[in-house]
Amino acid sequence: MVLSEPYWDHHIPLPKLGPLHSRLVTAFVALICFINSYDGDFVFDDSEAIINNKDLNPETPLSNIWKNDFWGSNLSSNSSHKSYRPLTVLTFRINYLLAGGLFPVGFHVLNIALHCVISVLMIDVFAILIGGLAYDGRGAKLNLSPKASLLAALFFAAHPVHTESVAGIVGRADLLCALFFQLSFLVYCKAFQGGDNKFSVFCIIGSILLCALAMLCKEQGITVLGVNATYDILIVCNLNIYEIAHRLLSRRKSADIGELVRNGLLVRLALLFLGGSFLLYARWRIMGTGPPSFTEVDNPASFAENVILRIVNYNYYYSLNAWLLLCPWWLCFDWSMGCVPLIKSANDWRIVWPLVLWCCLIGLVSHALCSLDSNKRRTLTFGLVLLVIPFLPASNLFFRVGFVIAERVLYLSSAGYCLILAYAVGYCSYNWRKHKVHYNVGKNLADRGNQSAAVKYYREAVRLHPKYVHAMNNLGNILKERNELPEAEGLLSAAVQIQPDFAAAWMNLGIVQNSLKKFDAAERSYWNAIKFRKKYPDCYYNLGRLYADLNRSVDALNAWKNATMLKPDHSLAWNNMVILLDNTGNLAQAELIAKEALKILSKDHTIMFSLANVLGKQEKYKESEGFFLNALKINPNVASCHGNLAVLYHRWGKLELAKKHYELSLQLDPNAPGTKENYNMLKRRLEQRFRTVG
Predict the structure, then answer these.
(1) Are residues 252 and 214 in the same domain?
(2) Which band of pLDDT confidence, cut at 50, 70 and 90, is reported for residue 2?
(3) What DSSP line would sit under 519-545, residue for residue?
(4) Same domain as 440, residue 382
(5) Is 510 in the same domain as 400?
(6) Is 594 within the bounds of a domain?
(7) For the chain, how many structural domains are there in total?
(8) φ and ψ at residue 143, rounded to 5 degrees
């Protein structure tokens, strides 16, 4: 599976929140937008589905909900709309039982809660569709598109077109269907966590079962299988539809069927097809193998005798649905009874809107298939997939539906629109601040250790924006590490001239100047950094190194003490203090400092090593040995630690142990300074002892 972080995610005007905070914010937005419906009454279709529905009454056998339609009529009846949604009716019945009657507050509260949960789950759905969900070494999910997925989820949580689904109690069918739709998709994605073309059949079967539950809430749930299949083809198998079509049209070799068999795509598609076919067959049998009957009042366009006019009006309905997503300025609970007059001739100006819709769709499809940007292709493709596939049952393409426009059927389709809208916001933000792209790419490359490529992007960022001090600072840092010191000094000097309070650039400039032996300039740069950032432990550490190079031991110790006061776990500063005191013969003070450091950094093997050396010089052999062994327990592959422990044993008279650790040190580093000479000296001593004993 290909996972990639969309470059435009960083430019979305949202703060980067942690997973928990993102979910809490999304749930809060969903709650605030629809909480005002909690005290509403039973309205419109609620009367038939709830008040007059005998299946909600506890005295009615529970088995009846599995025999009747959504409105409580027998499915075999000619007047039944064949809406088989027993799980939705079951939740109505539970509301009835918990409240002790038909009190609407409980019904509304559950609808609002369901919308909040669905909005939160949309973060994971969008994260997978935009950039993929990765996993760290502990199995925790890593969202590769945190801002984009959060923004899309916020759009979904707040979209006004959801009013009918959330505020109208019968809209619970759409809410429950959407919930199981999401779960089915997420479980299907989970089937591929193993990698290496492995997949979990159990997860795929689980996804199909969740699809069945979605269908038992509303018929639209079957469409999740189409989304799952598309995800498998485009993301799991990484097939490029445009390239495949181009090969077929140019009569070149198409995709390798053998490869599709090896990665299991055909097996998974077969499982989805068989599962979907079984569910459709079962649904057909349940509704009595006959379609529902509707009148011309319910859906006038479907009764038009002229096929062309029927198609034109259907497309006009699609454009109205698209407009409701784009601009939900006017919403209506019922669009029948002549609310949308039919288009009956080519002179009707409204015929323009279907043309506008298809121009927009064709433009989106072309970008989704032909763009060279893989992130753009992925996001737009799945935006269109989520927009179109869940809408298909309401499109009149496969069977006649009993409405002209129904905003509730857009509940799932709106997710695709929100995904496309989030992409548009991110893309526009990226273009408004595109000089930062080179900086971000350079930073990502540098973080991954690819410094040569990072330099190229940082240089381009500085060229496009000559006063981009952060790019100059990062580029100067890399050049410093590559020992290209004069250029690094020039860049960093320019950065602090442009932004005199840029403390990090001052510190990095000081490091470069120290390396160039410009000690006075380096000291001034360090103090400038501290001037603009009072609590700057790393700068105090580097200042201490400068003073140590100048043999200003007292100043060096004071600088490192400041570093450890500001950052008590600053290991390097502690260790340098111990080493400096050791080198200047202040062994007792070095011992105190090292033991103080180990109270804070109890597992720091470098400080243990330095302390062991200090104790050894004081002939505290037993205590020294303990710290050497503890250091080796934490990091057993340090040649110098084995070598110094061997010297300790050598002085202590434990010659066999000394021999053992000399040999371990030489195995790890054959060129360890002094170790080979000490080892040869020990061997001569052992040979002399052997001859004396012999």
Answers:
(1) yes
(2) very low
(3) HHHHHHHHHHHHHH-SS-HHHHHHHHH
(4) no
(5) no
(6) no
(7) 3
(8) -80, 115
Residue in 147, 14, 11, 146 with CA at minimum distance from that of residue 434: 11
pTM value > 0.85: no
Q: How many CB atoms lie within 10 A of CB 121?
A: 20
Tokens of 562: 């400041």
Residue listed under structure tokens 């629109």:
417
CA angle 618, 624, 626 (to 5 degrees): 160
Both 274 and 370 in one domain: the answer is no
Q: Taking the alpha carbons of 38, 39, 43, 47 in that order, is the dihedral positive or negative?
A: positive
Q: Pick the last residue of a domain from 534, 560, 578.
A: 534
Angle, vertex CA 113, rays to CA 100 and CA 116, nearest 5: 175
CA distances from 490 to 407, 530, 689 (A): 62, 21, 63
CATH for 512? 1.25.40.10
Residue 630 lies in a domain: no
Residue 668 lies in a domain: no
Report which DSSP code applies to 422. Answer: H
Which residue in this structure is represented by tokens 């698209």?
Answer: 322
Residues 280 and 305 in one domain: no
In whole angstroms, give the CA distance from residue 557 to residue 291.
Answer: 88
Q: Which of 6-10, 42-46, 139-143, 677-681 has the lowest mean pLDDT?
A: 139-143
Q: How far is CA 335 from CA 49, 284, 300, 324, 351, in A?
A: 19, 28, 11, 13, 19
386, 307: one domain: yes
Structure tokens at 41: 């009454």
Asked if 26 and 170 sit in the same domain, the reply is: yes
Residue 359: exposed, middle, or buried by beta-carbon count in 10 A (0-12, 13-18, 19+)?
Answer: exposed
**604/569 Cα distance (integer angstroms):** 10
Does 209 reside within a domain? yes
Secondary structure letter of residue 160 according to DSSP: G
Q: How far apart are CA 89 and CA 23, in angstroms?
A: 29
Query: What's the CA gap between 87 and 80, in Å, rounded?
Result: 18
8 A C-beta contact, residue 215 and residue 70:
no
Same domain membership, residue 340 and residue 267 = no
Helix (H, G, I), strand (E, B) or coil at 134: strand
Per residue in 466-504, pLDDT tens?
888 888 999 998 999 889 999 999 999 999 998 898 999
Question: What is the rounded distance in angstroms from the CA atom of residue 528 to the CA atom of residue 562?
Answer: 16
In the 8-state DSSP scheme, what is residue 236? Answer: I
Range(s) of the domain holding residue 490? 433-534
Determine the 3-state secondary structure of 370 from DSSP: helix
The rounded distance, in Å, linking the Cα atoms of 672 and 351 is 85
